[in-house]
Amino acid sequence: MDEKESILKFMVIDHGKMYEFLSDFRFRLGQEDKEGAVGAFNLFKQKESRHIDAEENVVFKFNKKIEKIKILEVIKKQHIEAGKMIKKIEEKLNSQEDPTEETEKLQEFLRKHTNLEEKSFYPILEKELTKEQKIEMINKIDEISNVKKTGVFKKFLNLFK
Question: How many domains does the chain have?
């Protein structure tokens, strides 16, 4: 079974992409590469936003069975909290303050959040959905969350030329 047939594998890969962007942001902060850090943060923020949008508007609303999974309310609240944490980092960057502490908190929070999704939520979907439903869901998520289709990604890559 490839990642286009497994919602769990697909989301693990998507979570990994977000971690890459956030890790790159942290690395650039440590290197005092302000322009690169801002580019990496913007890329992370866009990817995270699209990921949450895909979960909230595709995954969670895919069918009535999913809407009734108890852990869903916890996950939704965590999405709101992650958004607040990202906003704090953005405010620090805009005011020329060091967002390292907030970034470390966000990274730890996201580790716990993705662990909850990957251990408790997505395995339920693997059992409940048919292969065709998983493929349909993944295709819809892919349409929303594919950050490589955006100009931000191209601008970010241009920083390395």
Answer: 1
